[in-house]
Amino acid sequence: MREGKSKGLLYGMKLAKYPVIITIDADLENDPEHIPKLIQQIAEFDIVVASRTKLPRISEKIVSKTLGKLVGVTDTLSNFRAYRKEIVSEFTLRGGETFGAEFLVIAKKKGLTIGELKYDLNPLNYDEFRYA
Q: Are strands 81-84 and 114-119 parallel, antiparallel or unpaired?
């Protein structure tokens, strides 16, 4: 049964064995060199979002501009994140495919802390994904 990326992420996070969970897209848009910085920041927050400083798609810009004000991050659709394993049980997804944004809304409603690590998207990747 294919229920979307968000539900797939949640399923995997529930199976995780370690206290910190890192999620990252497999399309190479996100640079894994930022993982140590995410792990450092998770000591202060329940979730840390690796936010791209320049969003390549107009849909990402619109959603992040509006939803970002609510949850406090500039890249709400980035699934390049760190989560504390202990908070995963707080998530029950109700929306359809939200590309991870629903996790941030639930976290905000439950009073979980959300941090942000801003980084520049690799210029080579930016050109590749700009028109996607």
A: unpaired
Task: Please say whether the structural domain 5-129 has been given the CATH code 3.40.50.740.
Answer: no
Record the pTM: 0.86
Q: Please, are residues 99 and 31 in contact by the beta-carbon 8 Å criterion?
A: no
Token representation of residue 116: 């942000």
- Of 70, 77, 21, the closest CA to residue 51 belongs to 77
3-class secondary-structure state, position 34? helix
* Weakly modelled stretches of the chain, pLDDT under 50: 129-132
Structure-block tokens of residue 62: 């619109």
Phi, psi of 114 (to 5 degrees): -125, 120
Amino acid at 6: S
Pairwise CA distance, residues 10 & 83, whole Å: 11
Measure the CA–CA gap between 121 and 126, rounded to whole angstroms: 6
Q: Break the chain into its structural domains and give their ranges.
A: 5-129
